[in-house]
Design goal:
By secondary structure, this protein is mainly beta. 11% of the residues lie in helices and 42% in strands.
Amino acid sequence: MSVKAIFNFESIDSTKDLCDLFAYIFNKGIYYGGLLTADTRTKCVYIAPFRLLSHDGMHIISDKDITLELKTEGNYYVVCKAKYNMDDDATIEVSLKTQQQIETDSLKDYFVYFGLVKYEQNSATIIYDGVRDVINPIGGKYGE
């Protein structure tokens, strides 16, 4: 297993109702793990195993590190696009996105943000503050 939804579509009456309930109660965000590390030698960003809740209440889990390649210098958001789909498998994509790519994506509301990587001159800085979607233990966003 790498990245998957805990509840995939089974029937209209069960999985959709569970996702709707979680979306009603909780904000989207990471509730376990998902810390980032960058290796400028290999030009990669690593995401530690994580658990998160999507915009539409779907639980997503990853049980191993995910590796993303930094191709060129710039600012990259590390995101998980996660959307529950009726009658089909969930849309789950973990990737690096520029601000422009995010703004033009029709599913941008379904992004959960791990952080921002500023990659320039063979140096990578990871920024969490003001970027990372985290669910606090009570279910709201930190700072609310």
